[in-house]
């Protein structure tokens, strides 16, 4: 069902996607589709796939700079090839995409570590925080010991640099995915981080 809905988004805007066409492409009835599927499912699936790629990038060989550069490259590549991921990370939703329903939480309330399935997709800040926290956890075990606060800042800077390439792609004559800038940030980080 989700594959059929995602395929439909590549050819027409979300408001023009007819559930009867998605159901037919998925080989199910329209009623089954209505009972089992919502636009938040599609958006959550994109977030899960992006986070799986983050985990893979953080698991690459090398030091802090290599692993954060791989995560930055994955982030830029994902935002360029998947409009849902771009919307999730930037909050910039095109007219042709389904907008996720973000749950309304009172100011200062804590976001649960594990979202309920019906809670909606993460906000851009929540998703960036999840990626930063995963990066810190993956990199914190390296030796020499690191200052966790400084490592968190370095990870967030690397992610925000990558997101800048999603929002404002480089000039067409300049190839780039932010990797050189991320390496530069990590190299200039305090010794307690690199």
Question: Could you please describe the fold and organization of this structure?
Answer:
There is one protein chain. The chain is mostly helical. The longest helix has 20 residues, at 39-58. It has nine helices and no strands. Helix 4 packs antiparallel against helix 5 (64-81) and helix 5 packs parallel to helix 8.
Annotation keywords:
194 residues; mainly alpha; elongated
Low-confidence stretches: 103-117
The sequence of SSEs as H and E is HHHHHHHHH
Average pLDDT level: 75
The count of helical stretches stands at 9
Radius of gyration using CA atoms only: 19 Å
| Backbone structural class | mainly alpha
Q: Main β-sheet: number of strands, strand sense, barrel status?
A: none
Q: Sum up the overall morphology in one term.
A: elongated
Give me the count of strands.
0
Note the gap between the termini.
44 Å
Strand content: under 5%
In short:
The chain has 194 residues and is mostly helical.
SSE inventory with pairings:
Blueprint: H1 2-9, H2 19-26, H3 30-36, H4 39-58, H5 64-81, H6 83-90, H7 124-139, H8 148-167, H9 179-188
């Amino acid at each position: 069902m989700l594959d059929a809905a995602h395929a439909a988004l590549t050819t027409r805007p979300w408001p023009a996607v007819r559930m009867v066409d998605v159901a037919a492409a998925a080989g199910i009835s329209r009623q089954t589709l209505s009972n089992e599927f919502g636009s938040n499912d599609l958006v959550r699936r994109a977030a899960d796939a992006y986070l799986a790629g983050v985990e893979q990038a953080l698991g690459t060989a090398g030091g802090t700079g290599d692993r954060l550069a791989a995560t930055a490259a994955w982030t830029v590549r994902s935002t360029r090839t998947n409009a849902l991921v771009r919307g999730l990370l930037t909050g910039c939703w095109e007219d042709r995409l389904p907008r996720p329903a973000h749950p309304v939480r009172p100011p200062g309330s804590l976001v649960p570590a594990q979202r309920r399935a019906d809670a909606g997709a993460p906000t851009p800040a929540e998703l960036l925080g999840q990626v930063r926290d995963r990066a810190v956890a993956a990199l914190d075990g390296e030796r020499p010991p690191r200052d966790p606060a400084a490592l968190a800042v370095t990870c967030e800077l690397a992610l925000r640099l990558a997101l800048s390439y999603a929002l404002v792609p480089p000039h067409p004559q300049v190839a780039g995915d932010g990797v050189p800038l991320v390496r530069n940030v990590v190299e200039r980080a305090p010794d307690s981080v690199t």
